[in-house]
Structure formats: structure tokens, C-alpha cells
Automatic annotation (TrEMBL), chains A, B, C:
<feature type="domain" description="Glycine transporter">
    <location>
        <begin position="24"/>
        <end position="98"/>
    </location>
</feature>
<feature type="transmembrane region" description="Helical">
    <location>
        <begin position="168"/>
        <end position="186"/>
    </location>
</feature>
<feature type="transmembrane region" description="Helical">
    <location>
        <begin position="81"/>
        <end position="100"/>
    </location>
</feature>
<keyword id="KW-1133">Transmembrane helix</keyword>
<feature type="transmembrane region" description="Helical">
    <location>
        <begin position="193"/>
        <end position="213"/>
    </location>
</feature>
<dbReference type="InterPro" id="IPR005115">
    <property type="entry name" value="Gly_transporter"/>
</dbReference>
<feature type="transmembrane region" description="Helical">
    <location>
        <begin position="48"/>
        <end position="69"/>
    </location>
</feature>
<feature type="transmembrane region" description="Helical">
    <location>
        <begin position="106"/>
        <end position="124"/>
    </location>
</feature>
<feature type="transmembrane region" description="Helical">
    <location>
        <begin position="21"/>
        <end position="42"/>
    </location>
</feature>
<keyword id="KW-0472">Membrane</keyword>
<dbReference type="Pfam" id="PF03458">
    <property type="entry name" value="Gly_transporter"/>
</dbReference>
<keyword id="KW-1003">Cell membrane</keyword>
<dbReference type="GO" id="GO:0005886">
    <property type="term" value="C:plasma membrane"/>
</dbReference>
<feature type="domain" description="Glycine transporter">
    <location>
        <begin position="111"/>
        <end position="182"/>
    </location>
</feature>
<keyword id="KW-0812">Transmembrane</keyword>
<feature type="transmembrane region" description="Helical">
    <location>
        <begin position="136"/>
        <end position="156"/>
    </location>
</feature>
<comment type="similarity">
    <text>Belongs to the UPF0126 family.</text>
</comment>
Length: 221, 221, 221
């Protein structure tokens, strides 16, 4: 019963503005990540089913890992068929319109990806708090929601995941999640807190791409 | 309580014919996949423990992922020791009788594997429906049950999983699962529906191996 | 309610001696494995976030997999922030004091690692029994607790996990877990049983390193 209530109240993250808005943004994040997965499949010379698998994993893997860890089982994307349908739609678009997708400017794709990352991180942290996870771990759950899908995709492609290698990707997700967790713990109103968190993650990610920021590394390597 | 009831009613997939039959076929699928895992370990020059791990993962990984996702926790193979025992038995047989196993004609092994795939896909879809998963996602769960174990095995061996590369393997599993889900939603009787699903998956897989069918790929790659 | 009770009673493994002792040893195991993860990140030329991720995964991955499989959700390390904090502390120490950590004699690190393995295996098997898992599978759960984190770390680094390749690592974990499970099933007192299990795993591991023991492999490979 409480589980059901929690789930129903969850999309209320931005309710004062609009539930439909949040759902739309959430679906948009899923679509963007799914297209990325489908493009990765086309580039790796995988078949259509590989594209569907990679899109599903990239778009929904992070949320599934978070839901299993916080005890929200079955995960959202196994409970609601629309997430999977959107992921598959994105995969098919990316796969068959591969040449078209490649014409989209890279900077626009990076921006869309950063937007998806920001939304997933913020929504993940908020959901973890709803499930009474400790704030410190709720921030981690936000980060996992944002980067988990891409990590599983990279593992399936037998590559060291991006999150372990390069830049400020996961750090941006954690920063956005931290803003939300701190804001909600200070009992600030939800909508501005969520918008702040999304903005922090999005801007941090975009600036780091633009400025080629990296985290400290050991000298001499 | 309801969980217990669900679990008890689950092996009833083919009850009109025989419970013992289903359990035997389920165990046979586990054994076949375990032998495959053990053979993979012997080929990769792993030690005996590696063979046990790979056999367990190959035979039971798909069902464990499905059970975690649909909320059937602890998963079947953690609840019932016989699954693990069969997996280990298969590993030991494959490991110590490696030269003997290699003498079995490849076509017979492919047939056994297709049979295991078909059964796991059908049983997985049926179990997901029992847990009130949406039909679209129940088909996916059937596919995951069939191919999940082999995928985790390939990830552990640091290889791109077969499911992402080649042929109609996962597609056959999804087709068999779809037959079951559609049949049960149309309230058709269980036994013929299950037999139909198993046959569709099995035949699709065998014919695709025989005819070297592949899914569409992007031209120019 | 029962879940809460189980969790509260869990750290009582060695209660007759001291709860604080067990918790300290558990945290020590987490710290040792986290340092290993951080060192692996520094060696792989990963950035600081990569070190945090690898440390978290190495130190807590095994326990998380076990908890999900036995139904202890959310897992311990998502429920109690101190595990994550210790893992991150270990990562930061290993990362920034890399040259210092490398001066610690390898034999001392191996000993610490064997101690962590022994404790995790014993604690994992005991927890699985508390959750009414079949003894045979409880031994497996002990093994997974000990080696699961390192396995996920190796997968993320796109390497074949150590557990599949070399020596008596996982076997020692399973042996220690088996001692605990058999001892508790025979209703022997907890503290000596736990100490026995830890000793068996620790000694088996140390002797196998010292003597270069390996499990049987197929001749001619």
C-alpha cells in the first residue's frame, strides 16, 4: 500500500508546475539515451536486436539499478510499458535513420545528453529520498541513475565505461543530485530545488565539455 | 503469503499434462546450459572453480535477473538448491569429460541449446505474467530468461555477448515468449499455448542456424 | 518488522565477545577492499571519481549482490551510510597516497586482503542463513560476498575476473563459508564457529599464495 502510494506520488516532483511536464521530460530523457544506445549499436555493426538491447539498457539501466537498490521492485520501467516502448522507438529511429542522426550537430547531441543526465540524476535522488534512503546515499543513487545505463552499455560492448575514464560526467550528476538532496533536507520548495539541481548538473557538464575539464589524476601517469 | 502461493502455482504451467514433466524439462534446460558453461570454461583454460562459476551463471543467470526485476525475491534458484546442484553437476561433467563432450555432434548440442532457450523463454514469460507484469514487458522478461545467462557469462569472459552480435538467437526467444503471452491473454488453454511457444522458438532458432539467417544490419558496414 | 529485527540481530554474529569488535572488523574489511579498488584505479590511470567508483564497487559490491539475492533490500550498504563513507575514505587515501600505499609490503596487503575475504565470506554465509536460505546456497552466498566486489571491479575494467582465472581465492571463501554453515547447522556456538570459518578461509588463502596452489585444470592446455 505504502509502496503504491510512493510510486503514485513520485511523478509529483514538479507537481506545482505540471505533472505532464515532468513525465514529458522523463520520457524525453529516455528517448535521448535510447537514441544514443541505438547509434552505438549501429556504429558497432550490431544488428537491429543489438540496437534494441543497447537502447533499452542505456535508457533504463540506471533507473533499474537504482530501483533494485532502494527496494522499488519491480522497477519503474518494468512496471510501466511506456518506458520500454520509448526506448525501442528511439532504437529503431537511431538504427534506420543512422545517417540522418549523424547529421545532427554533435554539440546538440551533447546538450540533449546533458539534459537527460541532469533529469535522471535529479529524479533519481528525489526518488531515493522518497524511499527513506540516507541523504549521502541518495546522492549516490542520483549519480547511478544518471550514469548507470551508459555504464552497463559499455560493459556489454566490452569497453571500460566512460564513467571510469574521462571527464566530469558522473561528477555533474552527483552535483545535481547533491543540490536536490540538500535543498529538500532544508525543506526548500520542490520545484525551484529540482530546477536548480537540473541546472547545476546541466551547466557543469556543458562547461566541462567546452573547457575540457578533468578530475585530478596522478602525476607521472 | 500471496508470494508463496504464486511460487507454488508456478510450476503448474503444464499441470494438465504433468508437473513432473515440466520440472524435468526445466532441470534439463539448466543442465544443458550448465554443460555449455563448463565447456566454455574448459576452452578458456579456466580452473574447476571457474567452470562451476560459469556453469552457474550461464544456467541460472537469466532466471535470476528476471526474478529480481519482477520482484520474485529471493530468485527461484536461490530458493531451491536443486537448480544450483544441477548446474554444478553439469559443470563437473563438462569439465572432466571435456574430450567426451566435444565428441557430441555440434548439431545435437545446438538442438539441445535451442530446446533450453525455448523452455526458458516460455517459462520466463509465463512467470512474468503470473507476477502481473505488463504483457509487452512479460515478452521481454521471457527473452531475458532465455539469453541473460549466456550474456553474463560472455561479460565475465570479457567478450561482447553473442546476443549483441550475430543471429536470431534472442529474436527466437522473444518470438516464443510472444506466442505464450498473446495466447494466454486470449485465454487459450495453457498446455497447447506453451507447446506452441516452445515450438516457435525452437524451430525459428534451428532454421536460422541452418539457413544462416541474420537480422538487418546497416548497409556499408 | 521481521526484516528490521533480522537486520538488528545480524551484527550479533560475535555478540558474546563484542558487537563493537565485529563492526570494527567488518569496517576494516570494507576499508581494505576499498584501498585495493583505489590502488587499481590509480594504476589504471583513472581519475579521482573512477577511484571512488572502483573502491565502492570492490568493497561493497559483493555484499550488495548477496543482499539483493537473499531479499535483504535495500542492501546493508545502501541502508547504512558508514559503509559508503569508509569506502570513499579508502579510495581517497589510496588515490592521493598512491606512492605511500605502494611501499606497504605486498605480503602485508595480501594478508589484509585475505582477512577481508575471510570476514566477508563468513558474515555473508551467516546472513544468508538468517534469511532462511538453504545451507548449500548459503555457502554460495558467502562466496559471492567475498569475491563479488572484486569480480564487478574486474568487469568494469574490461578484464576477465581473477575469480575465473587463477588460484584458490574463491575456494578459500567457499571453504570458510562452509565451515560456518555446517557449524551453525550442527548448533555449535556462534563465536567459535565464526572464528573457525574465518581462520580456515584466511589460512587456506595464505598457504595457497605461499605455495602457489591452483585448482585442477585440463591437461594439454
Amino acid at each position: 500500500m505504502t509502496t503504491i502510494r510512493r510510486v503514485l506520488s513520485y511523478p509529483a516532483l514538479l507537481r506545482p508546475t505540471s505533472d505532464t511536464l515532468l513525465l514529458a521530460v522523463d520520457f524525453l530523457g529516455t528517448l535521448v539515451f535510447a537514441i544514443e544506445g541505438g547509434v552505438a549499436a549501429a556504429r558497432g555493426n550490431l544488428d537491429l536486436l543489438g540496437a534494441l538491447v543497447l537502447a533499452f539498457v542505456t535508457a533504463l539501466g540506471g533507473g533499474i539499478i537504482r530501483d533494485v537498490l532502494i527496494g522499488a521492485i519491480p522497477p519503474n520501467s518494468i512496471r510501466d510499458w511506456r518506458y520500454g516502448a520509448i526506448a525501442f522507438f528511439g532504437a529503431i529511429v537511431a538504427f534506420f535513420m543512422h545517417s540522418l542522426v549523424l547529421e545532427i550537430p554533435a554539440s546538440f547531441l551533447t546538450m540533449l545528453d546533458a539534459a537527460g543526465l541532469a533529469l535522471f540524476a535529479v529524479a533519481g535522488a528525489e526518488k531515493a529520498l522518497n524511499y527513506k534512503i540516507h541523504p549521502f546515499l541518495a546522492i549516490l543513487m542520483g549519480g547511478i541513475t544518471g550514469v548507470g545505463g551508459g555504464t552497463v552499455r559499455d560493459v556489454l560492448l566490452a569497453q571500460v565505461p566512460t564513467v571510469l575514464r574521462a571527464d566530469v560526467y558522473a561528477t555533474a550528476a552527483l552535483a545535481g543530485a547533491a543540490v536536490v538532496v540538500i535543498g529538500l533536507r532544508l525543506k526548500l520548495p520542490r520545484t525551484p530545488v529540482a530546477i536548480c539541481g537540473i541546472s547545476v548538473c546541466f551547466l557543469l557538464r556543458m562547461v566541462s565539455v567546452w573547457r575540457h575539464w578533468n578530475l585530478p589524476r596522478l602525476a607521472g601517469h
